[in-house]
Amino acid sequence: MIAVTDKQTEARIRYVWLNRKTNHVEPKTAWLHRQGDYILGVGYYSPHATAMDAQKLLGEAVAFAIKNGMSNANKAFNDTRGAFVHDDLYVFAVNLDSGLFEAHGVNPAWTGTDARNLHDVEGRALIQEMIDQARNKGTGVVDYVWRNPVTNAVERKRSFIQRVENSLLGVGYYLD
Question: Is-contact 173 158, C-beta < 8 A?
Answer without folding.
Answer: yes
